[in-house]
TrEMBL record:
Family: Belongs to the SMP-30/CGR1 family.
Organism encoding this protein: Antrihabitans cavernicola
Full protein name: SMP-30/gluconolactonase/LRE family protein
InterPro entries cross-referenced by the UniProt entry: 6-blade_b-propeller_TolB-like (IPR011042), SGL (IPR013658), SMP-30 (IPR005511), SMP-30/CGR1_Lactonase (IPR051262)
GO MF: hydrolase activity; metal ion binding
Length: 286
């Protein structure tokens, strides 16, 4: 295990882009890019909890903004403009995580409740996934998700996988040509696993980060565990990248519970890396 960067806050949303790892420090309100030599620089500054992002097929970053309840487009100089208004869907911010498929469809999920007030009670969960198509039009395409977290799209753009942290499972949906979702199913029951950020590899296995269990786990469809990487703090998200796609990057921090999001705590955030046996999967464009 290699430590690439330390002294960070709550780190999330790692993305491999243009031969660098991009990630968000939620506490600093920064999106940072780091290369293989450890050289890093801030690309975007935006105060938002959460602060998640992904890239359109042309390389343009889209950022989910809680304060603006919107999806924002980042210019090369880091300035932000509105890409889509998400305020019609929830009063609890723009969303928690985002993934963009090869057609340029952006999927944004939202737990859709006041996380500081405690988890809502009921058989039906309030979380949902909204779709923003390349023309900027947004609509809800899936609901009844229990704290939706990391998401990934298969390389053929046919399947969306969503981590349901509070149901300890990965859910999957078929993606239609217009971006809509159907045929919801349990992709993997994770037992005591609490999936946060996820990524797919070239064998369509999922790596999921697990905060309370301090690990990243590689799991196949159906739930078979293929590999586990243990660390000394909460694993918030993971991403495959590097020159051959076989470097597993992990963003990790000390987790003191949901109430710590509102206070000054020693997160001790880190960016870590280790080797994986199977390379990354990338949604095909078009």
């Amino acid at each position: 295990m290699q430590t690439l960067m330390t002294n960070l806050g709550l780190v999330e949303s790692p993305r491999w882009h243009q031969d660098r790892l991009w990630f968000a420090d939620w506490i600093a309100g920064e999106i940072i890019a780091i290369d293989a030599a450890g050289e890093h620089e801030v690309q975007i500054r935006h105060r938002s909890l959460p602060l998640c992002f992904d890239f359109l097929p042309d390389g343009t970053p889209l950022v989910v903004s809680g304060p603006e309840n919107a999806l924002l487009r980042a210019a090369p100089d880091g300035s932000l403009t509105q890409y889509a208004d998400l305020s019609a869907f929830s009063t609890f911010g723009g969303g928690n995580d985002i993934v963009i498929d090869g057609r340029g469809n952006a999927y944004v999920n939202n737990p859709n409740y006041d996380v500081m007030a405690g988890e809502p009670v009921g058989a039906t969960a309030p979380g949902f996934v909204s779709l923003v198509t390349p023309d900027g039009v947004a609509r809800v395409v899936a609901d009844d998700l229990s704290f939706p977290n990391g998401m990934a799209v298969t390389a053929d753009n046919s399947t969306l996988i969503v981590a349901e942290s509070h149901r300890n499972r990965l859910a999957a949906f078929d993606i239609a040509a217009d971006g809509s979702l159907s045929r919801r199913r349990v992709w993997a029951d994770l037992g005591t696993g609490a999936p946060d950020g996820i990524c797919l590899d070239d064998e369509n296995a999922v790596w999921y980060a697990d905060v309370p269990n301090k690990r990243c786990v590689r799991v196949r469809e159906g739930g078979e565990v293929a590999d586990t990487v243990e660390i000394d703090r909460g694993a918030f998200a993971c991403m495959l990248g590097g020159g051959d796609g076989k470097t597993l990057f992990i963003v990790a921090a000390q987790w003191a519970g949901m109430s710590s999001m509102a206070g000054d705590v020693p997160w001790n955030g880190q960016v870590l890396s280790t080797r994986a046996q199977v390379g990354r999967s990338t949604p095909k464009r078009g």
